[in-house]
Request: fold
Amino acid sequence: MGSDPDSPMANPTAANDTAIDLQLAYEGAGIQEMLDQLDRELIGLRPVKARIREIAALLVVDRARQQVGLETTPPSLHMSFTGRPGTGKTTVAARMSKILHGLGYVRKGHVVTATRDDLVGQYIGHTAPKTREMLKKAMGGVLFIDEAYYLYRPENERDYGAEAIEILLQVMESNRDDLVVIFAGYKERMDVFYQSNPGLSSRVANHIDFPDYSAAELLAISQLILAAENYRFSEEASVAFADYIQRRIQLPFFANARSIRNAIDRSRMRQANRLFSRMGTPLTKLDLMTIEAEDITASRVFAGEVEGLDPARPLT
Reply:
């Protein structure tokens, strides 16, 4: 039987003459607006932002190909975010979910955050329902698993983390058109985690490393935090806080932007106590807004000390 010269297979250019405007598709899905917001919210992280733009471009082109009838396997969207605490992984996950929703890759565009405790049970028969419940909550959006390497504990043969991983693998494959899973944690530990779970590693196509912030970027982040809360540094306080950052980076349990926010919260507390000590003296709006150098240099960081041993707890 001869082939039909008018068929799409014989003449691919005749399959669909509709012109696709990628810029219009990009803007129509609100991608540029989301990326601009990410630039405003997060200082630095240029390699991370570049990778997010690359993924967004892939998805826009993939959607355009579908519109003109070019069948292809949907891109794998499961991701790995590696880096130290406070480098913006959770914020980027939220923006990524909105991008996926804007392009129609997930139905809702929400993010559900989980840790080992949310997925792994303590006795037989407990893990499967816990894991499936979290997956159900995340369906239609993104499941963000923080410190994912704690799911795998080979030294404990009675641990049920492997069961949770097996369920995750099944759902990641069978529901890849309605769920994106993002695994997050320290890079070194995540590398070991993936080496120990080759089936999991093969399903995670997008690996994004979040670098630590520089001292200058951390100072810029502090200014953003202050502005959002209607505070300001005096000129002397700005110098003192730059000194604080240099010292704090060298101490244990430094958590990047998270440590900076904690430091500002403590400075606000010291400012409040300083102003309270002036009770009876009228205060101006500028007084209430301004953090002075003494509110910063009172920190124990200037003595080479850190309060607390848990990086998740506020640090001075």
Summary: Confidence is low (pLDDT under 50) at residues 308-316. The longest strand covers residues 180-185. Residues 47 and 210 are 8 Å apart (CA to CA). Residues 46-67 form the longest helix (22 residues).
